[in-house]
Design goal:
With 358 residues, the chain is of the alpha/beta class. Helix content is 24%, strand content 28%. The strands form 4 sheets. Strands 4-3-6-1-2-5 form a 6-stranded antiparallel beta sheet, with helices on one face. The protein is globular.
């Protein structure tokens, strides 16, 4: 009895194996059966989100100016970084926010970030101030650098308030190297300007630093700061959008301008006309109204689509674009990525129709 039963088991197992192999070959030959055998989408699987998420511990929390908190985040095996880099912090609520690294790149045991409390903001800064206490574990991604310190014969920095955070490591590096640099640092008041004492010490040799507190001296003289630039000098600016607009308007021709934004540019979104977005995988089409984001329109049909910052910084909402001309308005994607993908929270269509791999 045992031998026939064994023979039956072998035959059944063999038939099952052959069936599975045939099924795989059939699926490979026919993308329409039994389900669409589409290639792996970029949507929801961007290379950016493949960046390792590591858990760090808040080991230091210091108030460095009125409304500004500095955090020290420690953990093993931290990737190196260079001045101008930033981290993505995954906050306890799940929000993702970007913070410039303002510590020492030679410190391989910790990252240091600082943030100002924005009372009328979207909640990220308040969560950092109220919930990220010493001993708490926090997830981070990065670091990444889209604001690097370029080679130049000289440098001029124009900074407003918390915009000093990505610039501070640059100033330390330039001061140590003996390079030519100048800084115009503005803020509402001296008490609200983080790292002011260290910066004034860095610039003590040669009067390199000009500090303009608005409650004492009004607005900084942008045109004066950009006058008599040395040939080829690089200009760096980080701060509120009106400050960056003023620097761009006053910059003499022939000088590279490097900008770092802490919020999305308030450009011509409201003046852009409506357009259609086809969701290729579902076969549905949505209408994006003037002033409405692609993300908002898409979520009416696909409520589970991933997003976080809604400002074009974190990359969570990156989607693959199959057809249409993209009006990129993010601060994150590389030129290669912009060829076939977009951040749907801020970017739009230059024509009348986009097709997304959704």
């Amino acid at each position: 009895m045992a031998l026939p039963r064994l023979r039956t088991v072998v035959l059944v197992s063999g038939a099952a194996l052959l069936t599975r192999r045939a099924l795989k070959r059939r699926i490979a030959r026919s993308p329409l059966w039994p389900l669409p055998a589409l290639p792996e989408p970029i949507s929801g699987h961007s290379k950016r989100r493949a960046t390792a998420v590591r858990k760090l511990v808040v080991t230091g929390r210091t108030v460095v100016a009125e409304g500004v908190v500095q955090l020290r985040l420690e953990g093993p095996g931290l990737p190196p970084w260079s001045p101008g880099a930033h981290l993505d912090l995954v906050l306890p609520s799940g929000l993702v926010r970007q913070f410039s690294l303002c510590g020492d790149p030679e410190d391989t045991e910790a990252y240091t970030v600082a943030t100002r409390l924005v009372a009328d903001g979207r909640g990220g800064s308040r969560e950092v101030h109220e919930q990220l206490q010493e001993g708490l574990e926090v997830e981070v991604r990065g670091p990444r650098n889209r604001f690097p310190l370029a080679e130049a014969p000289g440098y001029v920095f124009v900074v407003g308030g918390i915009g000093i955070t990505p610039v501070l490591p640059m100033l330390r590096a330039l001061a140590a190297s003996g390079a030519e640099w100048r800084l115009l640092y503005g803020g509402r008041s001296r008490a609200s300007m983080p790292f002011l004492e260290e910066i004034e010490k860095l610039g003590a040799d040669g009067d390199r630093v000009t500090v303009v507190a608005q409650d004492e001296a009004g607005h900084p003289d942008i045109a004066g700061a950009l006058a008599d630039l040395a040939p080829g000098a690089a200009v760096y600016c980080c701060g509120p959008e009106p400050l960056m607009d003023a620097v761009a308007a006053a910059l003499p021709a022939g000088h590279p301008l490097h900008l770092e934004r802490f919020s999305a540019a308030t450009d011509d979104t409201a003046r852009t006309g409506p357009f259609e977005v086809e969701l290729h995988r579902s076969g549905r089409t949505v209408r994006v109204a003037a002033g409405q984001s692609v993300l908002a329109a898409v979520r009416e049909e696909v409520p589970y689509v991933a997003y976080s910052c809604e400002q074009g910084f974190c990359g969570t909402c990156q989607q693959r674009v199959l057809e249409g001309e993209i009006d990129h308005r993010d601060e994150l994607l590389t030129e290669d990525e912009r060829g076939d993908s977009m951040l749907i929270c801020v970017s739009r269509c230059r024509g009348e129709r986009l097709v997304l791999d959704l």
